[in-house]
Write a structure and sequence with these properties.
The longest helix is centred in the first third of the chain and has 17 residues. Helix 1 packs across helix 2 and helix 5 packs across helix 8. The protein is an alpha/beta fold. The chain is built from 8 helices and 7 strands; from the N terminus they run αααββαβαβαβαβαβ. The strands form 2 sheets. It has a 5-stranded mixed sheet. Strands 1-2 form a two-stranded antiparallel ribbon.
Length: 200
């Protein structure tokens, strides 16, 4: 019996350890916490994970995560439909929404150009971005990729691609440290970076 429990516990620890940012000690702590809580807490957690996987997908317009089609931001008539913020991942949308300072819409690239990782422009949602600009009357595109080498390469690529289309292309102001991720930026830093965006 103890061998079965140890095996199940080891598997749980191993699964937690696969999550980003969760090391072996944190995985062990989480696993021990869960097995010592009432069974309904574990059942609620398992149900929430399964529901999220079943119900959440990508918005067909902006490619943000959503459980509705299109997502709530794309449906919101109060949003500035001429202002489009291009981000790398859905978690970057959450970072901007926390600031309450951006009232445009978003476009999630689903990554950045990274030749080392084998990710080229065709692997991203750039074709869909061009279609949106042509079809939605976008006046300004804020390129809000992370201030990393890959983020800068992607921003410059987008600027060269978008400028001939007659749209204003801006980049977030510095203030975000090089190599950092938007999801970890505090609201004030992100708000100031957005306010001080510059044209590419």
């Amino acid at each position: 019996m103890s061998t079965l429990v140890a095996g199940a516990l080891a598997r749980l620890i191993s699964e937690f350890n696969r999550l980003p940012g969760v090391g072996p000690k944190s995985a062990q702590r989480l696993a021990y916490y869960l097995v010592q809580r009432p069974p309904e807490e574990s059942q609620n957690l398992a149900a929430a994970i399964l529901d999220a996987r079943r119900l959440i997908g990508s918005c067909s317009t902006c490619f943000n995560l959503t459980d509705q089609e299109p997502c709530a931001i794309c449906r919101d008539p109060e949003r500035d439909s001429q202002l489009l913020c291009v981000v790398e991942q859905p978690r970057d949308v959450v970072a901007f929404e926390r600031t309450r300072g951006f009232r445009g819409r978003y476009h999630v690239l689903q990554g950045v150009i990274s030749p080392v990782a084998g990710i080229g422009p065709d692997s991203l949602r750039i074709k869909e971005l061009l279609q949106r600009i042509a079809g939605e009357g976008i006046a300004e595109v804020v390129v809000a990729t992370n201030p990393s080498t890959e983020g800068e390469v992607t921003a410059l690529y987008l600027a060269r691609l978008l400028k001939p289309l007659g749209v204003k292309v801006t980049r977030l102001a510095q203030g975000l440290p090089m190599g950092s991720d938007l999801e970890y930026a505090d609201e004030i830093t992100l708000s100031r970076a957005l306010e001080g965006r510059r044209e590419l």
